[in-house]
Amino acid sequence: MERTTMKKALTNRNIQMIALGGAIGTGLFLGSAKAIRLAGPAVLLTYFICRIAIYSLMHAMGDLFLTNSDFQSIGNFIHYYLGDRWAFFVNWTYWLCWMAAGLTELTAIGLYIRFWFPDSSPLLSGILVLSVLVVVNIVAVRWFGELESFFSTIKIFGIFLFILLGIGISIWHFQTPHIGVKENFGTIHSFFPFGLTGIATSFPMVLFSFDGVEMIGLTVGETSDPQENLKKAIKCLPARILFFYIGTIVAILLVVPWQNLDLKESPLVTMLQMVHWRKGAGMINFIILVASLSSTNSAIYSTSRILYNTAKEKNLSKWFLFISSRSVPLHGILFTGGMFLLGLCLHFFVADSRMLFQLLAGMTTVCFLFVWSSILCAHLKLPINLLQKNRDKVTFLFFLMVGLSLFFESATRMIPLISLGWFIGLNLMYRKIHVSHKKEMSVEQK
């Protein structure tokens, strides 16, 4: 007999590490260089503002899950409060979010590996990593949870180490003429080199860094005691992420003048190469590589669960409901792996991996903004107080403004228009499925 339910094997430690694994990845370790180049040291304000918005989002999502124990995914409460069509849009857009995020990570992995093997192919690196992680996800959800916890532990240890190194290097080399602490924080103009415009244009890349914080919503169906564990995770996660992000960016800016950041590599590696510590740069690059492996692992998990939940809502073939003997959605994982493989073929059409990374990051941000805004809209349907309603509305307006800011950057100007085409296509797809369901129901009634 086929299984159609998944085992509740994830603990509070697992879901917090999974969420950290999804949120602390390429956006911090590679995308932060682009964000700093856009805003200068003032990017610290961008991260702080984005953290406030993310806290509001997490609070809203927690309220929605805790009000009804039947909600097993984000799509469940979107369907309940905003209707079937909106849930259809959110499920498929969230799937696209993680597809784009996963491809971004796989692309970044190719860039990181070039630190040791300059002539290596990003395509072959991505295929090798993808194959290993698909096998891990097929074996068992507990293996996924433990591997993600292991990856996140290395990542967190690496960030702590890096922050201490940044402080130590800035003190040891303080008398050096071009040390970051003097160049970046010496005057108001050096802190705000591009004024408010720079801060505005850096928001999409900074928010891209936070993509994945809502991922704990996908673990509800596989979490033991979800009400208690979800509450703990949502309470702790935003503060921990802010510490890691702000601490890392401060460490970079204490050592490296923002103008010297190289978009070809992680700013963490640039920092250690500036003080000619090649071995240290290699160690940090390894930790960053593990971080991207972690985020790719999360992307495979997320996309397969989104397909499973969409099929449960009868907006996708029952084929995706198949649960293996190891209690994982096997068909969803295999389909996800195949789609990632096709996505990796973009390397044949975009020669510059850095350009591909930026395009994928922009697309990911737009999709996540839609999903996050939908969560806020659903939260407004709850009987909440005026303060919470105003907070949701302000956060929604902030997400809208970030989406519009993509028009300011030439590399991302077309992304909102591409996203519009995506939603038009989804609407046509929904109407076709809805008509087919009506015909099936009428045949059954006859």
From TrEMBL:
Principal localisation: membrane
Biological processes annotated in GO: amino acid transport; transmembrane transport
Transmembrane segments: 45-66, 86-117, 123-144, 156-174, 194-220, 241-261, 281-308, 328-350, 356-380, 392-408
Domain Amino acid permease/ SLC12A: 15-402
Keywords: Amino-acid transport, Cell membrane, Membrane, Transmembrane, Transmembrane helix, Transport
Pfam families: AA_permease
The keyword Cytoplasm belongs to this UniProt entry's keyword annotation: no
Cellular localization per UniProt: Cell membrane
Domain of life: Bacteria
A cellular component term, taken from the record's GO annotations: plasma membrane
Membrane topology, from the record: Multi-pass membrane protein
Protein name, per record: Amino acid permease
Organism: Enterococcus durans
